[in-house]
Structures are given as structure tokens and as C-alpha cells.
Amino acid sequence: MSRRLAQGFSSTHESDATVPVRAVVALGANLGDREATISEALRSLARLPLTTDVVAAAPIETVALTPDGLDPDAPAYLNSVALLQTRLAPSVLLGYLHAIETAHGRAAREPGAARWQDRTLDLDLIAYGDVQSDDPALLLPHPRAAERDFVLRPWLTVDPAAYLPGRGAVADLLRRLDEREDAS
Description:
Layout: E1 3-5, E2 21-29, H1 34-46, E3 51-56, E4 60-62, E5 64-66, E6 69-71, E7 77-86, H2 90-103, E8 122-128, E9 131-135, E10 138-140, H3 149-158, E11 163-164, E12 168-169, H4 170-183
């Protein structure tokens, strides 16, 4: 059964520190030494407090996605997905993800900043157990994850039974994306 979070930060955003939760983190980079950056980001995830069992998909290269669609002229992305067990609250984990991005040269996330820019590292919290949140500061699951081949495909390689809360089995979501691509 899904655990629904109320809007606004409250004690419901806190994880029960005794029960680890599986979190799904998407990693992407299209500037600099992408492979080295993804590898170091994975090592940073493994060093997080109250976090264990980091497992990552082999990186895949994808065409950059922009507001106007795929852009083969932009630097290509290297994407992966990591699964981890954590006792960090989802808001705390998200803060760590932002800190890891910053350590790898990503500009601070500011209101109104370009969402679709090239970047040295992008880390997105895709899912946190079965938590669903519509809090603008902590949207769970990630609102566009079900539409992103570069999230679903690597996720499925490390967890064939993956499930995106509120959306369904990752295998089914990916199949629908593939069918849409074939139809166009």
C-alpha cells in the first residue's frame, strides 16, 4: 500500500531511522568526463550516512532531451540508475543529491533557472520506497520518470521487478514508451 505525504514539510517526511527504504536515483552527465563523473557520483552515494547496498546499472549513452525534443547536436548524455537502501528521510537524501551535484560543478538550483541545460551531473530522486508526495520541494515519484526511457531502461536492468509508485511496473511503462516510439 502506498504511503501518501501531505503537502508541506512535516514529520511525515521523516524516515523511520530503524527501517531502511529502497531509493531510486537517476544519474546523468553530458559535460566533461561523463564516465568519471558518474563513477565518482556513485562512490559518493555509497558514502552517504545511513545508506547501504548501492547497486547501479551500466551507463547508457542517450541523445540530449530539450524542451523541443531530442537534440542530436547537443552533447550526448551518459545515464544510469542507482538503487540504494537508506534510512535518510527523503528530503535529507535529496539535499545530499544536490550537494553531490554541486561538488561536481553543477550550478546551484535557483528558482527560474533553466531546467534543460547541459550539465556536468544531474541526480534525480526517482522513487523513495512507495512514498508519493505532491510537495513542490519533494515530488515523489519523480513526475516525469514514467516518460523517460533513459531512466526506465537502466532501472529495469538492475531490478527486473521494478515498480514506479502510482504508475505501475517499470517493464510495462517501458513497453508503452517503445510502442509509442514504434508508432511515430
